[in-house]
Give the backbone structure.
Amino acid sequence: MIESCRIQGRTFATADLVQVRALIGAHPDWSRYRLSRELCALWDWRNGVGEWKDMAARTLLAKCAQRGWIELPALRRRSPNRHRLAAPPPRPWDGTAISGAGLELAALRLEEVSRQAEPRAEARAALASFHYLGYRRPVGENLQYTVRHPAGRLLGVLEYSAAAWKCAARDQWIGWSAPQREAGLAGVVNNSRFLILPWVQVPNLASWVLGRIARRITADWQAKYGHPVVLLETFVEAGRFRGTCYRAANWQRLGSTTGRSRQDRHGTLRVPVKDVYTYPLRADFRKGLGLP
């Protein structure tokens, strides 16, 4: 018997654990990948557009193993979806300066490219080469946007991915309990990367892009994952940036982080303090998060 809990957004109880153990026991030769796919089929576990949630199932199995509830088969190969990957191959960049002279912002091309191989590869290469945090595979559900000059040159890259599991300033501002956060967190999305290429000097470009994406991201998220989002968040390193473009785009600063990493389980790993900003995508966003 185990106490009912939520893992990967799914309520998990004793009956589910019995099914998982039975699946592993009946097929000791199966890989973790095969087990996760079969578990999705057994539970009909899909996202909003009907795709198997096999990565969520794989993570659920790993968490069950960490808690000592099951024993998984040996890992046969590194997952192709590991967060840390080899840096994208270097590519030549045209560093000719681009200014705002004679350039209409409305003429720029803003595209969501997470399912387009070549634009996505170029976006990853730009982040790896020019973003101070480099490139890292986004966490969970995600979208990537590129901003291009009318002539086609890349001007900027933005990435939106799963929200931080916990953030005191955000959670206090929303006013939700831990169970409410667990149930509603899929409605929050993190702007995890924002890059304007270093040779681009176009006034108001950054805030304009943030505004344009805010007007379309709910529809884009719905189209890819089958559910809407109602709140955006981001974390701005306080000692490095002032958050000017977010404030200009009407994002609200809620406070600062405590300087602890999301990976820090022992309270000893220190990271730079970051300012917390949010942007509601609708006036009743709390209702969209499942709050009364």
